[in-house]
Design goal:
mainly alpha; Leucine-rich Repeat Variant; 3-stranded mixed beta sheet
Length: 709
């Protein structure tokens, strides 16, 4: 037993295990190791650039068991912090990582405050160690995430946020970049997803002089996902190499398992590629001063010397701010007009930004120069059909959001391309015509307005700045077919208060069956007392007569129902639909019926499908680059069309040209059916021989003739 105890100081992992089981029994051994740590620490401080393995092991040992002896280890975190503060750049990389890991272990055991550790870690960013910076960033994110796992500590979060915001303004570019990356990652993880974080990134990050901080902040508002294409291409290469390796090498269970893993990774990457792109617009909606931010970004864009991609990010963010918050930044439109040339790099993106920055509150004369520039530079016959189609599509997207920007002369000129020889231009022009049939048909020529529909008759042409407020769900009239016989039996109190209807389909507004007997009773109450006694006797006699069976009432039931129906008042369709919208909770089936009814109103003989003019916050680049050409089908659909075209045709293959099927064939026809090995020598003889082959054949022939002699 004593021998075992003597070996304990040299076997730190075993001592660590024993201390965690029984701390009190091994307190002396721990104190001995702690004194050993202090001695090694003094030696290490004399030359901190050298590696000390003994100190490395002691630091990790004490960090693992520090929670067992809190009083003895009270100064241990401070020793590590002082080492990192005083010798952060001079330390050996392995020793620096050791001290950082020891502090993280102490933080995970709540032996060190989070804010103190954050301040130290941001000071360590000055070290030329990229792996250390990545490790620190991951720890900070996970630490804040774990602190808010069960319940959000608002006080602690506020303190940490203030520290992060101060580091975002730090002169050290690495600290500022790490700060914005941490805030963005915590926002994506729904931990710091409040308006405070968003507005700090908007006001500080988007106007930072550090390019990396500026780009990261702009990408945050654009919602870009980074390096997706690289990972997917690597997966494709790995799959090809894995399949080739498995095909050539020996088949083993290990190789089969590796191939299955690669296949699963490729399937996952393909699903991620097919997934619709997600755009994080909630951050843009949380900005407190979007007008000031848009004007500041535009001013920064005029004076910046950054590369072209960064300028494109500026334009994208400004256009989204203008479109989502309906801002007035009139200087943006002349600036973007300079780039509207077909040879301009990424011109479709710039056209997309022009469409995003359009909304109904912008005066038409502000956006009209953009439309004229697009028409002059893109929609001319000196350009290719694809350029013309892109120009028409961009005009359509701009006019979808600001219909009043189009002038009558320009619209009629563009509408003339509806009969252009190229299909892409023709379809783009027709889509513009269809848009103005719905929005402002008066601007079109009479022959382009099309047949009027119910939707056009119901649509109200809006003036500049006008807002139409609906008092019911549009298209709710479609639900009236199921509720034609809604009968509301109004109470006496309701009929005394209101003479009108309740809002349902049928309302009883008839008087009582006595034909004015109620009014006579009221007049009888105002008469003198003597008359009232006589009236009371008459009422009793009438009640006795009513209780007696009446044969005429039994035989004339149908006639009474007709009289009652004549006394019912039918409400108009609009009021009935409004009443249903106020009193009924619509289900998914109800909304499907409403949508079907609205689509039916837009259908005419000339247009088989409704106009897709739903405005969204983001303009899809596909709508501008949408060029109508012959659509590609998959292999199965192509084969179906091929087989459908062969129904009335004879089968392909060799056609026998003989008039009599029983007669013999020619030698050439017989050769086609012979075995190739039988005819190979003849096929070889037809090929042209080289001079060397002729020499060899002649030599063989002469040798053969010589032997024959």
């Amino acid at each position: 037993m004593s021998r075992h105890n003597n070996n304990l100081p040299d076997n730190l992992p075993q001592l660590q295990n024993l201390i965690k089981r029984d701390p009190d029994s091994y307190k002396e051994e721990f104190e001995q190791q702690y004194r050993h740590f202090l001695n090694n620490l003094e030696i290490f401080q004399l030359n901190p650039s050298d590696e000390n393995k003994a100190l490395y092991e002691l630091v990790m040992f004490i960090a693992q068991v520090a929670q067992c002896y809190p009083n003895e280890c009270m100064q241990f975190p401070q020793h590590l912090v002082d080492l990192l503060k005083n010798h952060s750049t001079n330390l050996d990389p392995s020793m620096r990582n050791c001290f950082v890991k020891g502090l993280i272990l102490l933080r995970n055991k709540n032996l060190l405050p989070a804010l103190d550790l954050l301040e130290l870690f941001f000071q360590l960013l000055r070290c030329p160690d990229k792996k250390l910076r990545t490790f620190l960033e991951t720890h900070i994110i996970n630490d804040i995430k774990n602190m808010n796992a069960k319940q959000k500590d608002m006080k602690l979060n506020s303190t940490l946020q203030n520290f992060m915001f101060s580091m975002l303004k730090d002169s050290n570019p690495k600290a500022a970049k790490m700060s914005v990356d941490i805030m963005i990652e915590l926002y994506k993880k729904n931990i710091w997803n409040d308006a405070k974080t968003v507005n700090v990134i908007a006001n500080v990050g988007c106007f930072s002089k550090v390019t990396k901080v500026l780009v990261a902040s702009l990408k945050f508002f654009l919602g870009h996902e980074i390096d997706e294409s690289d990972s997917e291409s690597d997966a494709d290469i790995d799959l090809k190499s894995a399949i080739m390796t498995n095909r050539v090498n020996k088949k083993t269970k290990k190789r089969k398992k590796q191939l299955d893993q690669v296949k699963r990774a490729v399937v996952k990457a393909s699903k991620k590629k097919k997934k619709a792109p997600s755009f994080n617009f909630s951050a843009i909606h949380l900005i407190h001063n979007p007008q000031g931010m848009a004007e500041g970004l535009l001013k920064q864009l005029h004076s910046t010397n950054e590369r072209f991609e960064v300028k494109m990010m500026h334009l994208d963010v400004i256009s989204r701010l203008i479109g989502i918050h309906e801002l007035f930044v009139f200087a943006f439109y002349p600036y973007i007009t300079r780039f509207l040339q077909p040879h301009q790099r990424l011109v479709t993106r710039i056209l997309q930004f022009a469409a995003q920055a359009s909304h109904e509150l912008v005066p038409g004369e502000i956006i009209e120069p953009i439309l004229k520039t697009i028409a002059n530079n893109f929609i001319t016959e000196r350009n290719s059909s694809d350029v013309m189609a892109v120009g028409l599509n961009s005009v359509r997207e701009i006019c979808t959001r600001c219909p009043l920007a189009m002038s009558e002369d320009l619209l009629r000129d563009l509408a003339m391309y509806k009969q252009y020889k190229e299909k892409s231009v023709m379809m783009a022009a027709r889509s513009l015509i269809v848009l103005y049939r719905e929005q402002l048909p008066a601007l079109l020529h009479k022959k382009d307005r099309g047949r009027p529909t119910e939707a056009q008759a119901e649509r109200k042409i809006k003036e500049y700045g006008e807002i139409i407020a609906h008092d019911t769900v549009p298209g709710a009239e479609a639900l009236l077919k199921e509720s034609k016989t809604i009968d509301i039996k109004t109470d006496e109190s309701e009929t005394e208060k209101e003479d009108g209807s309740d809002g349902d389909d049928w309302v009883d507004v008839s008087q009582s069956e006595g034909d004015g007997s109620d009014i006579e009773d009221v007049e009888g109450e105002d008469s003198d007392d003597e008359g009232s006694d006589e009236n009371d006797d008459n009422v009793k006699d009438n009640k006795e007569n009513e209780n007696e069976p009446n044969e005429t009432e039994k035989t004339d039931i149908s006639s009474q129902e007709d009289v009652k129906a004549k006394n019912m008042k039918f409400l108009n369709t609009k009021e009935a639909a409004q009443e249903i919208a106020l009193t009924k909770i619509f289900t998914d089936e109800d909304f499907k019926k409403i949508d079907a009814a609205n689509i039916k109103k837009t259908i005419t003989n000339s247009r088989k499908r409704p106009l897709e003019s739903d405005k969204t916050d983001f303009v899809k680049l596909e709508n501008i680059e949408m060029i109508y050409k012959k659509r590609k089908h998959d292999k199965e659909s192509r084969l179906e069309t091929v087989k459908a075209g062969r129904t009335d045709r004879k089968e392909f293959g060799y056609k026998d040209g003989r008039k009599n099927e029983n007669c013999s064939k020619t030698n050439r026809e017989k050769q086609k059916r012979k075995n190739y090995l039988m005819m190979r020598h003849k096929a070889r003889g037809k090929a042209k021989k080289s001079f060397k082959e002729k020499q060899q054949k002649m030599r063989k022939h002469l040798i053969h003739m010589k032997k024959m002699k």
